[in-house]
Amino acid sequence: MKGQRSGPWVVDASATSGALLVLLMLWAVAAPAHASAPAAESATPTRSMGTDSSTQTDESEDYFHWQTVKDLVGSVVAAAVGGWREGNGGWRGLEVGFIRGVQEIWVIFGPGGKLHPAYFLEHFHGHIMVEGVLLLIIAYLFLQSTFKPKPHREEPLTDKEITQLCKEWQPEPLVPQVPEDDKVHSRIISSYEDKYVVADGKRALNLLSHNFLNLANTPEMLAVASTTVQKYGVGSCGPRGFYGTIDVHLKLEEELAQFMGTDEAIIYSYDIATVSSIIPAFANRKDVLIIDECCGYPIQQGATLSRAAVHVCKHNDMADMERIMIMVEEEAKKEKRPLNRRIVIVEGIYASNGNLSPLDKMYELKEKYKYRLVVEESMSFGVLGENGRGAVEHWGLKPSDVEVVCGSMGNALGSVGGWCVGTTEIVEHQRLSGSGYCFSASLPPYLATSASQSLCAMSQPEGKARMAQLRKNAASMRKMLANIPDEDIKMVEHALNKAVQQVIQ
Amino acid sequence: MAEPTGEVSPPFITSLMSFMLFSLVFLLGWIRDTFEGYKGTTRKGYAPLREPQEDFYQRRVFSRIKDCYNRPIASAPDAWIDVLDRTNLCHSSGFKDLKVHETKQHCLNLSSYNYLGFAAADAYCTPQVQATTQNLGVSSCSSRSDAGTTPAHEELEKQTAAFVGKEAAITFGMGYATNSAVIPALMGKGCLIISDQLNHASIVSGARASGAKVKVFRHNDVEHLERVLRTSIAEGQPRMNRPWKKIMIFVEGIYSMEGEACCLSRIVEVKKKYGVYLYLDEAHSIGALGKRGRGACEHWGVDPADVDIMMGTFTKSFGSCGGYIASSKAVIDYLRRHSPAHLYATAMSPAAVQQVISAMRLINGEDGTTRGQDKVKQLHDNANYFRRQLINMGLHVLGDWDSPVMPIMIYHPGKIAAVSRLCLSRCLAMVVVGFPATSLLLTRARVCISAAHSRDDLDYGLSVIRDVADMCMMQYGFSSTLPPPAPHPTDPESVLAVDSWGSYKDWGNIALQDLPPQQVALAAGHQREKETSKKEERARQSKGKEAASLNTRSRKNGILPDVNCNGNGHALDVDSHALMSSFSKMNGGLGIRAGA
């Protein structure tokens, strides 16, 4: 029975407080009778010996007056001595004295006496005090949760048994063996010259890199990077908070904000840490997220890390999104939840399938149901929109219409890292709450200056020409791929299958 | 064997004062909010962007000391940095209220993780980095699995594996992402993560994202770790009561906010006894610990084979960016297939890759000199010298010998701003850390020592710290429980090491007559300098900034003798140690160069 609490102390709090309430009522009824008692009994002449006069005359308001105590002791002694004398020093006299003493005490403690509770009640607002204390106790007991005995626990394991269990335990291998044909063998790229790469020693057209505007690795950028490395070294050797903020970071942030037409911008040192830090900074357990089912890994991780309620909506399906929004609202109403943060998270262009998010319709929805919108523009920045500001511009929205816009510097900007733009409040909040920003070393300065370099090129008219060319190229490639006759595709499929079978054999 | 330094707790009066201070600050903030009528910028019908308490804390509490953080610099984070001046505009919103100016201040840098001094341009590394930039560019704009793998990446992974003593390695472009993207790939539902209480945020977020159960053991307490481990194995998974699939212990080589090295050898014993896995985060210890800079394993004499996953970053000792995981070939193959950071994130920039390769080559001595090894030795000498002097000053310093990170306990949160601003006004850039990064009462300043610091720099830093510690009353009267530095377990010359440490105590007692004549003259010169500068010192205290920048100028112009550097400014002999130490003793370590 170890660990189980039992015995007289296990009582229901409500029963106790009920009992006390009854007690309080009884007290309230009984007390006036007591209070009136001294008035009735004050006339009874039970005083004896000379000492009692002071007891009567002393009407001081002090309850525990020293005089009262002295009187008490004095009258008892006097009664005893008097009795002793009266009985001529015999035992009987002492008996009489004792009885008188008791009488004396009764005068003080009995009804009408100074140490009788009724006296206290009458003279010192005692009534209110006692009732107040009782009420406090009742309130305290009401506020207690009902005590429930814990379920019976089993005997704890002995040390020997634990050792035995530890010996028996066998862990799984750290990782399962990766089958040979499932291993990732990356091609080794030994050169990136313009649109070509040398992959595994072969020169090939580069259709892998996200270098959309061909601004990465231009001679100008390489020169800037080399100069920066000479001046600032390679790494920044510290997080932004602790002397890791370098002037080139501030410059890039300013330029980004200017380019995107927002109040402020913030840069992260890696792309997958960007959105996965932003989401937990703006959402926690109480909040609601709606993410598109085709969102990539960083968004998924961010949603997991935030611990918010995540609703996945069908890909680009606004009706489904509205359904979720209505559902969330109804649920909140039904359960009378306090207002929480609600966020929709989408990608400008989905990295997994190349589709665009219909931001115009999404904007209407999010305004209607009071959601905030996070757009991940890794793939759309520098690609969509007249000025290359991305999907927000493409769909004709103002920069202020979308709360958080973020993306990677590894694509159109041709550098490495992540960025986010928004209002001052949005950005400054991340500087203290974005864990990938606070707890990581800042972006190497040369990557910041490289990004500055391409941002500068993008805002030039020549940059706009590049974007136009990119859109043209994309459209023509799309057309060409669509025009491949079905039999050609089948032929390729057949050839591939054959090759796979050969490999298996 | 360094034992855990035990519970750190502030003196009673200090904690009382701290609570009073916080009550006052909160009360004042509340009054201001009430009478200034602060209204958030939230749109109607939307929940506020920040939690009300968080918002209040940032506007009314943190904004008071905002200028102590995020100070921008305009130079490489080397031994000396140029800190840009800022002015406070005092907006009630607490946002954007620091204006950055063009003017800058040349400060001694005791804040960057530039342990081996690779932060600035290096005669060996930088040309190689620039050459790689020309060949492979700044960025491949592609993930590692697509078109981001260059010969440099391949070489780096091979070299890293060899450097830490493992079979294979995989690299990522950011240290934080290494942890937060690899842990979910390794651990999952039904697995147990046993993590040190003070592990870095990246491990915490990785563990949280993995979906595994996380249990925490008391910081560096191996007995507690064992207790947690035993009960966990015995109990199995919660509710299901099935045995755990995998259990992994997560520790760091050096804890960045404590400066303590984890008791790796004992943790490895426990790990072997129960057959669990061990994940060692060497973000701060790689390059910094161990005689050859190979990290915690070398420092503790542990076979790297006993550590299942060795993680580390290139940001600190190697002066680059990114992180690595070194382990068996099977694990690395698995990570290449399953880690999202390998599949989706932009590959590490080739220039950053080359910086690490060159730095490692230098440490390995592949450039044909001992420069790399000298750097490691210099780092340990610097760190131990600085730690000894701080302890002698009566400051409460956390951490272990050889660790380049040394937190100095401030305790009282009200002193954060004072310490940071006073140091900056005396041309010293030092990090101060308070709530919420540490607990409310364990406020601290943190010093990071670099091999790039000369003994002269360190003495200057010490004099400023002594000055500031006096003004801020930071000597709390803790006696250090740190035993004298232990010899390296793997060091065959450990006897020699003990001897050289043994003489440490006596450094302060070297009399002038024991020194060679020219050094006596030098010392006497310093003494005179100090006497004549007393008046100026007073003036300096009132106008600290100006005078301090004067110092810097004079040190730049070479007015002050550089006694500590022999030749290349790296290796130091014991004589110059002794000399400098005796200088600092004679002058009380304060204002040596005050009036120079």
TrEMBL record, chain A:
This is serine C-palmitoyltransferase. Keywords: Acyltransferase, Lipid metabolism, Membrane, Pyridoxal phosphate, Signal, Sphingolipid metabolism, Transferase, Transmembrane, Transmembrane helix. GO terms for molecular function: transferase activity. Its EC number is 2.3.1.50. Residues 38-60 are annotated as: Disordered. The keyword Coiled coil does not apply. The keyword Lipid metabolism applies. It comes from the Eukaryota. Belongs to the class-II pyridoxal-phosphate-dependent aminotransferase family. Residues 1-35 form the signal peptide. Residues 205-493 form the Aminotransferase class I/classII large domain. The lineage of its organism: Eukaryota, Viridiplantae, Chlorophyta, core chlorophytes, Chlorophyceae. The chain crosses the membrane at residues 124-143.
From TrEMBL, chain B:
Keywords: Lipid metabolism, Membrane, Pyridoxal phosphate, Sphingolipid metabolism, Transferase, Transmembrane, Transmembrane helix. CDD domains: KBL_like (cd06454). Pathway: Sphingolipid metabolism; Lipid metabolism; sphingolipid metabolism. Residues 106-465 form the Aminotransferase class I/classII large domain. The chain crosses the membrane at residues 12-31. Residues 523-561 are annotated as: Disordered. The keyword Transport does not apply. Its cofactor is pyridoxal 5'-phosphate. It catalyses: L-serine + hexadecanoyl-CoA + H(+) = 3-oxosphinganine + CO2 + CoA. Its EC number is 2.3.1.50. Belongs to the class-II pyridoxal-phosphate-dependent aminotransferase family. This is serine C-palmitoyltransferase. The lineage of its organism: Eukaryota, Viridiplantae, Chlorophyta, core chlorophytes, Chlorophyceae.
